[in-house]
Design a protein that fits this description.
Number of domains: 2
Largest sheet: none
CATH class of the largest domain: Mainly Alpha
Radius of gyration: 31 Å
Helix content: over 70%
CATH architecture of the largest domain: Up-down Bundle
CATH superfamily of the largest domain: Amino acid/polyamine transporter I
Membrane topology: Multi-pass membrane protein
Distance between the termini: 104 Å
Number of strands: 0
Structural class: mainly alpha
Family: Belongs to the amino acid/polyamine transporter 2 family. Amino acid/auxin permease (AAAP) (TC 2.A.18.2) subfamily.
Keywords: Amino-acid transport, Cell membrane, Membrane, Transmembrane, Transmembrane helix, Transport
Protein name: Amino acid transporter transmembrane domain-containing protein
Order of helices and strands: HHHHHHHHHHHHHHHHHHHHHHHHHHHHHH
CATH topology of the largest domain: Amino acid/polyamine transporter I
GO molecular function: amino acid transmembrane transporter activity
Number of helices: 30
């Protein structure tokens, strides 16, 4: 007799798992990307052509006119090769995990960067591309319809563009209800044929028209800055022509796949055909169009062609049909984003743990950041003052002149508040994992973003800031010494800046051999006192001088673009004033810590004191200096003061002492990185000789760069803008979100996102202004001056 057995836990788990898989399959069968997987290889060919070849191809001759023959051809060819290679990578990665298909771009991002970070990295960029392109195609479709109407009926009453966009949109109110990629294959095929057709019309009609009389291939802009910015704009036009990667995984998801016949085979065949079509569209249009019309070509080559009317009308209709298909290809991607859980298993080797820990402790006891942990809270105070308050404080009145009273005061206050908040976050995160201290910025980055990605994100930016600041301070120290010499010995023969930089560097060939942060505490204290001293001299001497006659507070630039670019440059100057975050974890690493008395207590006390000193330095100098001199203030307020000579000399000597301390403070984390790599990766033995050689080489390198490029400060505004803003303004916020995962739409979540958005704006705008300053001042730059 057979008895009935009660269901076990395993049966319940199996039933639950089967139910979950069934639900997931039902969702996948409904979603537009995964709803149909029976596409052929030629579907991928015309889907890729439709996604890649946009109406932007008609602007390629104009881009060539901004780039010139040599750079233009090189950029077109390189873009084609690089994007084909990256597209091949995506096709290969679609099924790299057996039994798993990455059907959406963000799923691949989650596998690479982690479940949440992958979404944060990929989805915003993908949505910006796809939604923005759909909007652009909506406008392009409307304009092409209008162009067709105006060409075919030149005597008709003018109709607003708005109505043509509404006509174009009406088509999509119908087509957008097609359920999935395969259902729009006919539309996509028609669009691919149209793209090849109007491209052929464009270059064929150009050849028929012939080379324009008096054609010129020189750059059209009258100024160097205009040529450079046009060049950059053209790079954007070319990159916009290769936007198909955003839907390539979604296209591949429509192709059937088995272990014996994976989807990458037919997909790659389709991609090759698509890229041949892309080449047949892009290269003839770009090269023939530029050859025929030169630098007078319009930003849409159909405008340059003008006649015959029927051909231009037909080409515009082809554009309309093409962007209908392209719009649908991108629109089908806007489906619900579904997360992918990726599990990572870590292998432990217990028998080697103790030996590894012992060796690590020996290395930590030798490295400059972790070798001494007996600092007091006031060490943190003056270390932070020395790191934060740089000689850049003397340029804050000039920044105020570019910003104006209202925006200037707001930006100074907001920068002070945001950077204090992000500094507090870093202090809090230093020991957030029990028993673990994140002694270096990149270690915190690795905790937030993953072991490898954390290094890639943090280390380059931190090195740009720290090495860049050291080079700037090498130049600043030399120039301040030169200023002292020139003021004291006015009748003596001029001496090149090079020699003063070498004198300043000679001090660091000695001080660089102090082993760790605590050993430079005396230098750091002196530097902190000096920063407060020369800041006080700057604003007090300005107040004593009094408001100048005919002082003006309006913007000095005579043109609106000049005012805007100066505004952007001033944002970079303010950002440069708050670069201390790059060494804050390294400073906190010097404080002792126990579970009962963690280091964040004394560190935060030191930070508060430091930020009070920062406020006492920054706000009086910026506001009093601007109030007294108005928009005539020099980019270094000591130059505006001029007299009394003894006071200016004293202030410059204070600057020299301060940047000696600041140089050492920013050099210490670099020494730590170099020595860590040499000892742990290249297996050098920790020794005094190793430290002697590496540190002398670093000082010599920064001295050589400073001597070669005594205008390095101007360049740093451009390159540093990409690093100062992230490491200070928003990278700590991103780490906080990644690690603590605050409640969505809560106060912490909103605060961090506001800081991130403001920091991103700063990162984008400051280099633009700095680049313009470099272009305008390039004629005055002299090597080895």
């Amino acid at each position: 007799m057979v008895g009935t057995q009660p269901p076990t836990d395993q049966d319940y788990n199996q039933a639950t798992n089967d139910e979950r898989l069934a639900k997931q399959k039902a969702i996948d069968d409904w979603l537009p990307i995964t709803g149909s997987r029976n596409a052929k290889w030629w579907y991928s060919a015309f889907h890729n052509v439709t996604a890649m070849v946009g109406a932007g191809v008609l602007g390629l001759p104009y881009a060539m006119a901004q780039l010139g023959w040599g750079p233009g051809v090189a950029i077109l060819v390189l873009s084609w090769i690089i994007t084909l290679y990256t597209l091949w990578q995506m096709v290969e990665m679609h099924e790299m995990v057996p039994g798993k298909r990455f059907d959406r771009y963000h799923e691949l991002g989650q596998y690479a960067f982690g479940e949440k970070l992958g979404l944060y990295i990929v989805v915003p960029q993908q949505l910006v591309c796809e939604v923005a392109t759909c909007i652009i195609y909506m406008v392009t479709g409307g304009k092409s319809l209008k162009k067709f109407h105006d060409t075919m009926c030149s005597s008709c009453k003018d109709i607003k563009l708005t109505y043509f966009i509404m006509i174009f949109a009406s088509v999509h109110f119908v087509l957008s209800h097609l359920p999935n990629f395969n259902s729009i294959s006919g539309v996509s095929l028609a669009a691919a044929v149209m793209s090849l057709s109007y491209s052929t019309v464009a270059w064929g009609a150009s050849v028929h028209k012939g080379v324009k009389p008096d054609v010129s291939y020189s750059y059209k802009a009258e100024t160097t800055s205009g040529t450079v910015f046009n060049f950059f704009s053209a790079l954007g036009d070319v990159s916009f022509s290769y936007a198909g990667h955003n839907v390539v995984l979604e296209i591949q998801a429509t192709i059937p796949s088995t272990p014996e016949k994976p989807s990458k085979g037919p997909m790659w065949r389709g991609v090759i055909v698509a890229y041949i079509v892309v080449a047949l569209c892009y290269f003839p249009v770009a090269l023939i169009g530029y050859r025929m019309f030169g630098n007078s070509v319009e930003d849409n080559i159909l405008i340059s062609l003008e006649n015959p009317t029927w051909l231009i009308g037909m080409a515009n209709i082809f554009v309309v049909i093409h962007v209908i298909g392209s719009y649908q290809s991108l629109n089908s991607r806007q489906s619900k984003i579904m997360g992918t859980q990726v599990e990572a298993n870590q292998k432990k080797v217990p028998d080697k743990v103790d030996e590894k820990l012992r060796k690590q402790k020996e290395i930590d006891d030798w490295l400059p950041i972790t070798s001494s942990r007996n600092a007091k809270w006031w060490y943190a105070a003056f270390h932070n003052v020395t790191a934060m308050v740089g000689a850049g404080v003397l340029s804050l009145p000039y920044a105020m002149a570019q910003l104006g009273w209202g925006p200037g005061v707001v930006i100074l206050i907001i920068s002070w508040m945001i950077t204090l908040y992000t500094l507090w976050q870093m202090v809090e995160m230093h020991e957030m994992v029990p028993g673990k201290r994140f002694d270096r910025y990149h270690e915190l980055g690795q905790q937030a973003f993953g072991e490898k990605l954390g290094l890639y994100i943090v280390v380059p930016q931190q090195l740009i800031v720290e090495i860049g600041v050291d080079i700037v301070y090498m130049v600043t120290g030399g120039k301040s010494l030169q200023k002292v010499h020139d003021l004291v010995r006015k009748d003596s023969k001029p001496i090149k800046t090079t020699y003063f930089i070498m004198i300043f560097a000679s001090v660091h060939f000695v001080l660089a051999h102090l082993p760790n942060f605590n050993s430079i505490s005396g230098i750091s204290l002196a530097a902190a006192v000096m920063s407060l001293s020369y800041s006080t001299i700057a604003w007090a001497a300005s107040a004593h001088k009094g408001v100048q006659k005919n002082v003006e507070y309006g913007y000095k630039a005579s043109t609106t673009p000049g005012t805007v670019f100066n505004f952007f440059t001033a944002l970079g100057d303010v950002a440069f004033a708050y670069a201390g975050h790059n060494v804050v974890l390294e400073i906190q690493a010097t404080l002792p810590s126990t579970p009962e008395k963690p280091s964040k207590g004394p560190m935060w006390r030191g930070v508060i004191i430091a930020y009070i000193v920062v406020a006492l330095c920054y706000f009086p100098v910026a506001l009093v200096g601007y109030y007294v001199f108005g928009n005539n203030v020099e980019d270094n307020i000591l130059i505006s003061l001029e007299k009394p000579t003894w006071l200016i000399v004293t202030a410059n000597m204070f600057v020299v002492v301060h940047v000696i301390g600041s140089y050492q403070l920013y050099a210490m984390p670099v020494f730590d990185m170099i020595e860590t790599v040499l000892v742990t990766k290249l297996h050098f033995k920790p020794s005094t000789l190793l430290r002697f050689v590496t540190r002398n080489l670093y000082v010599a390198f920064t001295m050589f760069v400073a001597i070669t490029f005594p205008f390095f400060g101007g360049l740093l505004g451009f390159f540093g803008g990409f690093a100062f803003a992230p490491t200070t303004y928003f990278l700590p916020c991103i780490m906080w979100l990644a690690i603590y995962k605050p409640k969505k739409f809560g106060l912490s979540w909103f605060t961090n996102w506001i800081c991130i958005i403001l920091g991103l704006l700063l990162m984008i705008l400051a280099p633009i202004g700095a680049l313009r300053s470099i272009i305008l001042n390039a004629k005055d730059y002299k090597f080895y001056s």
